[in-house]
Every structure is written in C-alpha cells, then in structure tokens.
Amino acid sequence: MNSLSLSKETSPPAKRFKDLLQYSSRALHLVWSTSRSLALVFAVLTLAAGALPAGIAWVSQLIVDGVVAAMDQFKQSGEVLADPVMLYVLCEGILVILLAGCQRGISTCQALLRALLGQKISLMILEKAQQLTLTQFEDAEFYDKLLRARREASTRPLSLVTGTFGLLQNLISLGSYAVLLFQFSPWAVLILVSGGIPEFLSEAKFSGDKFRLFRRRTPETRMQMYLETVLAREDYAKEVKLFQLGPLLLGRYRDIFARIFSEDRALTLRRDCWGFALGLVSTAAFYGAYVWIAVSAISGALSLGQMTMYLLLFRQGQSAVSSCLKAISGMYEDNLYLSNLYEYLEQSIPEKQGGLRQGKKTGDGVRFENVTFTYPNAEEPALQDISFHLKPGESLALVGENGSGKTTLIKLLTRLYQPTNGRILLDDLDLQQWDAEALRQRIGVIFQDYGRYQFLVGENIGIGDVHHFADRQRWQQAAERGMAAEFIEKLPEGYDTQLGKWFNRGRELSGGQWQKIALSRAFMRADADILVLDEPTATMDAAAETAVFEHFRRLSQGKMNILISHRFSTVRKFDQILVFDNGRIIEHGRHEQLMKMDGKYAFLFSLQAAGYLEDA
Ligand SMILES: Nc1ncnc2c1ncn2[C@@H]1O[C@H](COP(=O)(O)OP(=O)(O)OP(=O)(O)O)[C@@H](O)[C@H]1O
C-alpha cells in the first residue's frame, strides 16, 4: 500500500476534506481542458437545475392557495375565477419543462464528456507508458499501478466532476428550500439537514472499505485477467486444447472469483443493512415534520397552499440532503480512486540520458569494459566481468548454454538496461551519454521473442524502421534480404495481406515464415551499422538458414554483426566467438583458435558435428 492512500486512511477529517477538494479541482481542470464549451454548458445547466425545483414548489403553493381563494369566491358570489390559477399552472408547466430540458442537457453533456475524457485519460496512461523503462514494466508492483489506473480511473474524473456539480446543484436547491422553510420554522431546517447525517457517515466509511479492498486484491484481479487472456486468445488456444488446460484454468478463475465475491458480498450486505437502518432516521424525521406541519395547518397557522408547499419542500429537501451527502461520499470514493491515476502518472521517469549524437572516436566500434549486470530483484548477476572490443567490419558470435547471459548482453548493448558495474562504449562514448534516438538508429536488432503484430505483412516489416514504416520499396528490399520476399509474393494480397486472426481476412503464418518477417524487419534499418540477430534461424529450414547467413555476411560488410546461435556450424566463419558459461566469457577467439584450445567450444562443436553426421 502506498503512502498516498495510507495518509488518506489515517489522516484527520479536515485533511481528508482538503485532499478531496484537491482532487476535485484536478478533475475539474481535466474536464475543462477536455472541452471548455461542454464544461460550461454543463455548469450552467446544473445551476439552473438546482434553482428550478424551489420555484416549482413556490408556484404550487400559489396554485393551491389560488384554488382555495377561487372556491371561497365561488361560494360567496357564484362566480368562477379560474384565470389566476390557470396562469400559475401554465407557469409551473413551463418551469417543469425547463427543468426536464436542463436534466436532459446535463445527461447529454455527461455522455459526451465521458467519451472525450475516457479517450483523453487512456492516451495519458499510454503516453506515460512510453516513457517508462523496461525495468519498470517488469516490476509486478508497477503493473498493479498500471492496472488500477486503467481499470477505474477513466470513468472516475467525470464522476468526480458530476459529483461536484451535483453537490452544487443540490446545495442550491437546498438553500432555496431552506429560505422558504425558514419562514415556517428554523427548527424545520435543522431537522431536515440532521436527518441525513447518520446515513452519510456510514456511506463514507463503507466507501473507504471498498477502496481498500480494491487495492488489496489488484494482484488477484491481474491473475484473473491473465487467465482470461490464456483461455480466450488464439495464440494459447492450441495448448489449452491439447493439454486440456480448460478445466484447470477455469477452476482457478472460479476460485479467484469466489474469493472476490465473498468479500464483496459481505461488504455489500453490511453497507446496505447499515444504510437501511440509518435511513430510517431520516424517514422518522420526515414523518415527525409531516405531523407538525399538518397540525399547524389544522390549527390555522398555515394555509392549505403553505402546507402543500412545506410538505413538498420537506420531502424534496430531504432527498436533496441525501443527494448532497451521497455526492460527498461518492466524491470521497472517486477521489481515492483518482489518487491511483495520479500515482501512476506521477511515477518518476528515469532521468533523461545523454544527448550526444556522435562518439569521440568515430569508427572505434563497440567496447565492453568489465561489465557486470544483475537484474532488478535478482540475487545472482546475469553477466559478470564482460570485456571485448568489436570493430566495424567485424562479426561477433555469442554461444553458450541456455540462460548463460547472451540475450542479456544484447539488452545492455541496446540500453534497455544499464550495467550494474563497468561500462559500454560506442565510438569511445559511454552508451549512457548517447542520445537515445541516435543510438537506436544505429542498431538493428531482432530478439528471439520478436513481436508478431496483427498488421499488414508490409507493415510488420516496416516496423523495423518507423521513419520508413509505410515505404513499400524498403519493405521489398528488406524482405528480399530477410528471405521473406518469395513467400510474401505468393500470398493473395502480397504485402497488403492482413496477419493474425483478430481481424477479418487475417492469415496466420508458419513459425519459419514469421521468423523471415522478423529478419526482414532487421534489414529495414539500412543505415544501422550494428546488426544483432538473436537466434534468427531456429525455426527455418536448412536451405533458408544457409541463404540467410550468406546475405547477412554479404550485406553487412563494414558493419558490426552480432549473432547469437546454438548452431555451431553457422558461427565458424565469424571473426570473434564468445563462449558464455553462467554469465561469464570462458573462451574467446576465432573458430580455429577455439578448436585448438580443446575446451568447451571444441567439445560442443564436435558433439554437434557428430550429430549431423549421424543424421546424414
Ligand atoms: N527480465 C529478467 N529478469 C530477471 N532475470 C532475467 C530476466 N531475463 C533473463 N533473466 C535471467 O538472466 C539469466 C541470463 O538470461 P539470458 O536470457 O541472457 O540467457 P541466454 O544465454 O540468452 O539464454 P537462451 O540461450 O536460453 O536464450 C538467466 O538466468 C535468466 O533467468
């Protein structure tokens, strides 16, 4: 639980009220910046809707008294004097129409603002996500914040503003009722207001309980959402069916729901029982006042019209008091939820790294100097004391067992993470000092777990370089280099074929075809001088693999090529081979040198060669 909500839960009422106002003003500002004209119309209509009911009650008194006077007149003179009453009825009709118009207008404004605000906040959340680091994304607590912000916060600002305006509207109504009721008795005003307070206190307490429940179970909600994804998405469907995971996962899903529901049920029951019991206080207050007003009318202290008006005022006043108090407790709840949004939006962004677009020694290439790296929350370093120098025109292969640190090295080179110790230099300039855009433009990289985007085939290649995202000529060149052109041209709509099953006419590709698309993506960055391929041919057939490496070597002359591969036959021609074991480089050299060493590389190479011979 964070300090913000803790402070809210333990702070004194005055401070809480101040926080409430702070978030209300932030929410108002958000709505104002979303659409000034709608916010203005909303405000004006709310004020009008607040003042009109008292006017209607007042006119209804005039009608009743007018009828009574006309009845007297009729008894005395036999003359029907209906004109003033008709006029009052007409006035009341007009006021009622105006009120209905205001209420309709308010709900129209709310609907429009809700749509605009939902979009604005979603964008704010997604834009913020672009500024965060990979480390933040991999942090479970951060994910909880993101989820909480996304789940509720898009509706809460409008709800807070609606609550604020609603409160204002009801306060205006209440003020105008109080002025009229005051003429009857100041005590009546006091009874009116105090009758609703117990219910309000219970509402406020249960809103806080509900919010705390919501925060505490975010990890469970996240698991539920994850299970929904696994159970209902096409990329998991195969395994879910074949491993018969459905019942197991559904069981987990049900268990989580049952736990959540039992907590919710208990809270809802407590909230409603208390709400009902304390609501009786205001009902008792109303009927007490009813008797009082009726007795006053019987004893002649009030006219029939006044009695009708006061009863109306009292009933409407009570509903205005309860609306005011509900609005305040609703605002309190919205405010708690809104703190999630701001907690996420105010998440600190790592300091902007360097702004240099050129190294001190152009052409020096990449240097790792005693680099050690430990993942956040990990105990053991994933890389230890790594040093090597790769010059332009050279190729580098990284080999080693699973989990030995090869991909981690690439993540450091691409500055997705920072070394814990040591430094990485490009053209003799520390990576941290490079401008992010300039650095990323120099590196073309395809990871093992590349994205399979449900876009057009061409766009899936274009993703490799956003500056040329829609450049068809570049798509084709890149596809030829990545060995994808041949199969793409055979697709019915060529580069315009929609991929994936989420959209109409979407096609699925084979694993090897997807890998060719990913490879082509790497070749989109024609200007990049560091090309990194992380196991790029694992799912390709032998012919395609040979051709890819032929291309890779030919096209990347003068560039720095880095390849991670488990196939030793593909790395033997590389200028440098780094053999990794448990995060360290245990052997380093060319194929011939490593074979002579007769160490791990030589052992694994011979093992694979023997395997090939056996297969043959
Ligand atoms: N995001 C992460 N957070 C924490 N630990 C990680 C993360 N990614 C990888 N690791 C750990 O770091 C170590 C090195 O992983 P890395 O992915 O670099 O291995 P690799 O040599 O590329 O393996 P493979 O050949 O299987 O691709 C492993 O022990 C792995 O569990």
What are its keywords?
616 residues, alpha/beta, ABC transporter transmembrane region fold, Rossmann fold, 2 domains, six-stranded mixed β-sheet, four-stranded antiparallel β-sheet, 23 helices, disordered N terminus, binds adenosine-5'-triphosphate
Describe this structure in words.
The protein folds into two domains: 13-221 and 256-345, ABC transporter type 1, transmembrane domain (ABC transporter transmembrane region fold, Up-down Bundle), CATH 1.20.1560; 366-611, Rossmann fold (3-Layer(aba) Sandwich). 66% of the residues lie in helices and 9% in strands. The protein has 23 helices and ten strands. The protein has helices spanning 3-10, 13-34, 36-77, 83-131, 134-137, 140-152, 156-182, 186-194, 197-216, 218-232, 234-242, 246-298, 304-345, 406-413, 436-442, 457-462, 472-481, 485-490, 511-524, 542-555, 568-571, 591-597, 600-615; strands at residues 366-373, 383-390, 395-400, 421-426, 429-430, 443-446, 530-534, 560-564, 576-581, 584-589. Helix 2 (13-34) crosses helix 3, helix 2 (13-34) crosses helix 7 (156-182) and helix 3 runs antiparallel to helix 4 (83-131). The structure holds adenosine-5'-triphosphate. Adenosine-5'-triphosphate binds at residues 138, 375, 378, 382, 400, 402-408, 448.
